[in-house]
């Protein structure tokens, strides 16, 4: 039944994470934006100790499933998107293990995130210097050493979110995409779980970025980095049938995006809402209240801008919830996930830029947070598939074209 | 629980209406627009579907299944066929729904049985005014007390006016509040002048001049005081916004299919990213707009105030319907500009949402 009413559980979660955003994240938000590569210890420790337990005393009854996950992501990114990405969680690495891993792999790699005595991180390493959106073009190689029953990884990964924590702190892991046979193209691509501190995996640098500066964006080098055959996601048997099972490996990896794109879209909505809520409060403080019941031709330009921002943000939020709710129903959602991601990334980029404009010099000033939210927002139009890649995915779906028919 | 799947019953109604729109409405859209005339046989077949009667109270012969959400689903599908014909099919609701929602028992008993049973549109609604700042919540048309009744003065426009109309519900300002008056078609001082517009040409519309139109006490919708008709405005916006989504979807599908057929430089133009990305954006915008409409409709069904949500939905569809229909003309290129194809008709209809209010109700 079409419904926009969150369950009791989602409402409690929303309240819980909203308070966390305001009380734990916002007070240190500016500091870790400026102190770019420092570990935000207060936040990381708080999250590991308290935050990850979730809202206390959840009630029995229906949940909103993946929609609730989106609500949580929105609230925390309403707090601070950079600190959200720095949370000690399995993050995208965990999504990859959940989407493509065997039961044994899920147990082995995800259990530490429940049991480790200290904060740990997961990450996913796909992008390379010459392979971003075209992830089938990656050069990092995986060679199977039958004698030792190990995979040997060689290559360099860039733009690995949470890559410092995941590669350096015992208990965490990095999921690395590599090709077992370049001649197979995307069919040769597999993903491998590389535990933190595995010899041969080196952290060689952290990016200095426009925004989300509290997030550690790492360059990782793999030099004869060896992992057991059991660390090939989806099971070790794939190695003997690489010519036929290859596509499943790539598709398994791509399936991660169907689950992660709604979350990224929800994160985007959170950043956009931070700026828009602030703008509306500020305008009201100055005596400007949006009259929703006025005809558009009688509204001021400022009112129309705000109405437009609200409508756009809500459209993005609802597209996001729809993509997530399809997962609740077990329906394929890659079209809807890409729609949500494309819309949300663009909308919050524009909203935050507009908010800086409408607030004038103070909006441009570092005294307020709006300029930071504008910098934080832009990444949502880029990572997890750029605006254009998501348009391409949507276009192929609606036109029923294959990737070779619409390039 | 947040969910985006219609109920089985809603899906059944929607699918029935989609079929009707494809088989009966769309094939008549061009001819109806050119002739500025509604296809009577389509309207009478549509009446048999009982789309309006289904939402009216059982006590007066209706189906008792009123839902703004179901209404939004129906409105989108009908308008996907053709906007003018869709507005005409749902026009009986323009008087019937306000009477059911706000009317006194006497008004319901006097009007609803005939409104439910008739195949024609017996009542219409006059809200819009011929001014750039026409404000549905604060009409310039005034109602002033005169003895037992009221006198109405002002001007209305964009009033649907099928030949069968017997009554018009005139919305007017009565002091600070918005009130409705049920006025007979032949009331002295009421003058109807046919008008024609850029789009929705098949729908007969008039401008109304009201000069000291005397109405009796019992003509005031809901009795001598109250009710405020705010919710009626939101119901109009949700209905129109749903139709705008239907218009946009029609334009998108035409453009998509044409782009896959039309060859240029040895390949369908849909294989070029310039066209493919435009189509992708259209699809995203249409889906986003539809969800805003559904959210506003769900609020109405929950009995909550939907002023804000309906305004947001209307704001969004105004832009989306125009951009998508304009995009369809563009994808068709020169063919989009000639009247042999539908995109130009859709563009003319889509622009109307910038000024429409309460041309339909959910």
Task: Note the main attributes of this structure.
heterodimer, A: 407 residues, alpha+beta, Butyryl-CoA Dehydrogenase, subunit A, domain 2, Butyryl-CoA Dehydrogenase, subunit A, domain 3, 3 domains, four-stranded antiparallel sheet, three-stranded mixed sheet, 51% helix, 13% strand, B: 362 residues, Butyryl-Coa Dehydrogenase, subunit A, domain 1, 9 strands, 16% strand, globular
The rough form of chain A would be described as: globular
* SS elements, strand count of chain B: 9
CATH fold label of the largest domain in chain A: Butyryl-CoA Dehydrogenase, subunit A, domain 2
> What do we call the CATH homologous superfamily of the largest domain in chain A?
Butyryl-CoA Dehydrogenase, subunit A, domain 2
- N-to-C span of chain A: 38 Å
The total of helices of chain A stands at 14
Q: How many strands, which pairing sense, and closed or not: the largest β-sheet of chain B?
A: 4 strands, antiparallel
Can you count the beta strands of chain A? 7
Count of separate structural domains of chain B: 3
Task: List strands and helices in order, with pairings.
The complex is a heterodimer of chains A (407) and B (362).
Chain A: H1 8-34, H2 41-49, H3 66-79, H4 81-85, H5 91-100, H6 103-110, H7 112-115, E1 122-125, E2 141-145, E3 150-161, H8 163-168, E4 173-179, E5 189-195, E6 201-206, E7 217-228, H9 242-285, H10 301-328, H11 334-359, H12 361-364, H13 370-378, H14 387-399
Parallel strand pairs in A: 1-4
Antiparallel strand pairs in A: 2-3, 3-7, 4-5, 6-7
Helix pairs in contact in A: 1-3, 3-9, 5-9, 9-10, 9-11, 9-13, 10-11, 11-13, 11-14
Chain B: H1 8-35, H2 40-49, H3 68-81, H4 83-90, H5 93-102, H6 105-117, E1 123-126, E2 142-146, E3 149-160, E4 167-174, E5 177-184, E6 190-195, E7 205-215, H7 230-261, E8 263-264, E9 267-268, H8 273-301, H9 307-332, H10 334-337, H11 343-351
Parallel strand pairs in B: 1-4
Antiparallel strand pairs in B: 2-3, 3-7, 4-5, 6-7, 8-9
């Amino acid at each position: 039944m079409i419904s926009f009413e969150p369950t009791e559980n989602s409402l409690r979660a929303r309240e819980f994470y909203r308070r966390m955003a305001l009380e734990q994240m916002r007070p240190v938000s500016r500091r870790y934006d400026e102190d770019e590569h420092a570990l935000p210890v207060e936040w990381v420790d708080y999250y590991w100790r308290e935050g990850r337990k979730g809202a206390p005393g959840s009630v029995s009854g229906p949940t909103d499933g993946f929609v609730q996950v989106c609500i949580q992501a929105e609230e925390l990114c309403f707090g601070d998107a950079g600190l959200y990405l720095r949370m000690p969680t399995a993050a995208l690495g965990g999504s990859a293990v959940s989407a493509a891993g065997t039961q044994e792999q899920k147990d082995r790699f995800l259990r530490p995130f429940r049991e480790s005595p200290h904060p740990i991180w997961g990450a996913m390493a796909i992008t390379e210097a010459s392979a971003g959106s075209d992830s089938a073009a990656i050069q990092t190689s995986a060679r199977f050493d039958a004698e030792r029953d190990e995979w040997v990884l060689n290559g360099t990964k860039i733009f690995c979110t949470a890559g410092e924590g995941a590669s350096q702190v015992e208990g965490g892991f990095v999921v690395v995409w590599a090709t077992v046979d370049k001649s197979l193209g995307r069919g040769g691509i597999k993903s491998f779980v590389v535990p933190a501190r595995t010899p041969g995996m080196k952290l060689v640098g952290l990016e200095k970025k426009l925004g989300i500066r509290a997030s550690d964006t790492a360059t990782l080098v793999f030099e004869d980095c060896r992992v057991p055959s059991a660390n090939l996601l989806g099971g070790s048997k794939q190695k003997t049938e690489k010519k036929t099972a290859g596509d499943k490996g790539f598709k398994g990896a791509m399936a991660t995006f169907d689950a992660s794109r709604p979350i990224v879209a929800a994160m985007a909505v959170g950043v956009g809402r931070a700026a828009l809520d602030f703008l509306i409060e500020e305008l009201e403080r100055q005596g400007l209240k949006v009259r929703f019941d006025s005809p558009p031709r009688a509204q001021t330009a400022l009112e129309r801008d705000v109405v437009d921002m609200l409508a756009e943000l809500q459209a993005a939020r609802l597209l996001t919830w729809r993509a997530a709710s399809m997962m609740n129903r077990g329906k394929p959602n890659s079209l809807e996930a890409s729609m949500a991601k494309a819309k949300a990334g663009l909308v919050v980029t524009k909203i935050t830029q507009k908010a800086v404009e409408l607030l004038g010099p103070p909006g441009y000033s570092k005294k307020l947070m709006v300029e930071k939210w504008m910098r934080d927002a832009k990444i949502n139009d880029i990572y997890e598939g750029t605006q254009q890649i998501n348009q391409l995915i949507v276009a192929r779906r609606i036109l029923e074209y294959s990737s070779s028919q619409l390039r | 629980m947040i969910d985006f799947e219609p109920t089985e019953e809603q899906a059944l109604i929607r699918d029935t209406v989609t079929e009707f729109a494809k088989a009966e409405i769309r094939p008549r859209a061009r001819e109806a627009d050119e002739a500025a005339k509604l296809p009577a046989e389509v309207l009478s077949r549509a009446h048999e579907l009982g789309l309006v009667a289904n939402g009216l109270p059982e006590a007066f012969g209706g189906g008792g299944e009123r839902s703004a959400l179901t209404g939004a689903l129906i409105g989108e599908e009908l308008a996907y066929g053709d906007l003018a014909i869709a507005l005409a099919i749902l026009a009986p609701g323009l008087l019937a729904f306000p009477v059911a929602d706000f009317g006194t028992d006497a008004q319901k008993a006097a009007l609803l049985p005939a409104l439910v049973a008739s195949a024609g549109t017996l009542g219409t609604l006059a809200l819009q005014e011929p001014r750039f700042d026409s404000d549905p919540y604060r009409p310039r048309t005034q109602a002033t007390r005169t003895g037992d009744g009221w006198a109405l003065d002002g001007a209305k426009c964009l009033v649907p006016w099928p030949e069968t109309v017997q009554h018009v519900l005139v919305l007017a300002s009565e002091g600070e509040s918005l009130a409705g008056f049920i006025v007979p078609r032949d009331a002295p001082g009421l003058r109807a002048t046919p008008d024609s517009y850029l789009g929705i040409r098949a729908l007969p519309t008039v401008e109304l001049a009201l000069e000291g139109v005397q109405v009796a006490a019992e003509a005031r919708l809901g009795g001598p005081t109250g009710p405020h008709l705010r919710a009626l405005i939101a119901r109009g916006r949700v209905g129109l916004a749903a139709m705008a989504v239907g218009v946009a979807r029609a334009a998108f599908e035409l453009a998509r299919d044409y782009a896959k057929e039309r060859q240029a430089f040895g390949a369908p133009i849909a294989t070029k990213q310039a066209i493919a990305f435009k189509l992708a954006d259209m699809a995203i915008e249409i889906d986003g707009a539809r969800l805003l409409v559904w959210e506003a409709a769900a609020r109405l069904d929950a009995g909550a105030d939907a002023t804000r949500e309906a305004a947001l939905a209307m704001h969004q569809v105004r832009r989306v319907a125009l951009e998508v229909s304009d995009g369809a003309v563009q994808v068709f290129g020169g063919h989009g500009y000639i009247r042999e194809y539908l995109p130009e008709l859709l563009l003319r209809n889509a622009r109307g949402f910038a000024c429409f209010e309460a041309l339909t109700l959910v």
